[in-house]
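Blinded run. Sample ID left blank on purpose so nobody reads anything into the name before looking at the predicted structure. Input follows.
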Amino acid sequence: MTPLARTAQTAIPLSVWVLTAICVVVGVLGLAAGWTGAALITQSQCGWLALIAAVDAALLLRLAGFPPSRARAMISVLMTLAAIGLANYFLVAARLGSRLGLEPAESVQLLSVEMAWVLAGYANSALDVAMIAVAALCAWWWGR
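Blinded prediction complete.
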């Protein structure tokens, strides 16, 4: 039996699940905050940070001790897409709120997901969307 097959058959301890959940939450929130800050400073979308999100997701899951599997790859992809979505939501809220004279915290509370989706569609270029697609594929590959 190969080491990969043995790993897939063993149960994952609760402590690994808890550590993984903590890493997912901290990783997504931290990267989204950093991405938002970088994009606001540079006055661009910083689509290349999607690849950093993929690296961050795969690395955090490995450091949490989650065994190599399709589940880890899927969690890595979902973590990457969550960081991308949250960063875009924060960016749209901050930029729209500044134009309306609102503080970022107020704008985040008032902005609907539907409006953020529409405005993020206008803000992201074709290159940004391509980077997001490549990041999702890389997250799957690196997360396996």
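Unblinding after everyone has recorded impressions. The chain has seven helices and no strands.
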